[in-house]
Write the structure tokens for this entry.
Amino acid sequence: MVASSTNTTSDSRSRRVKKVATSIVLVAIASTGVMGFLHTKMGKPLLMKLGGCPVGNISAAEMEKLRGETFVASQPAVETPPPATFAMGFDLDKSTLKDVVNWAGSHNITCDDSREGTVLSCANVRPKDLPTPSDSEVSITELTFGFRVSDKALYTVTSWRQDISAEAGSVAMITSGKKLVGVLGPPHKVVGQPTAEFLSEGMATAVINFQFTGYTASVSATHMPQGIWVREVFTSTKVANPGGLAQSAQGS
């Protein structure tokens, strides 16, 4: 009877871990609009927990088409141009894979590309090495870049700080949130609280989101089994036209 109870508890814990892992992956996919995250160093373990790649052998071009349709559907009802398109100093809709690789090389940062050169994942990035340096003391576990197939331009930047304390997660989220408010103005949506006390609760998630025509930004913190994961994501929701120039999805 004791063994049976232990196995039941173990199975319950395993299901809980898988549920949390699934949730964080789906958040990443929805925010960046690209399955490439699942093929990064951080994404692969979660991919295996999900039972393998959910889209099979879909190409980067096919994924871009689906992403463009999603961007068109998710634009604000009213035209709302962003005051800036902040992305840690990287240039959305302009920077190329070569530009980002050159930046990484100049700071001895190790990166791997995947998904036909449309995803670049860089490990252990010091905040002070970003194009727009940060005085944060918590290094970025993984910094991921997404590039469009059609015009080779950077369209999304996502940073992850993984398995840190609730106190460090709170400081990271508050610092990032203040910087975004200073650049973009008041957030469009706030969920939860970026406090250590709130983030210490099981499966707690806090989100600060900004949404404009052609651009979104967000910072979030999630309580994972081994600690807090803090994510920042900056995305151009513009769609490249046949001529190769990015244009607002609302106006395409």
Q: What stands out?
A: The chain has one domain: 2-251.
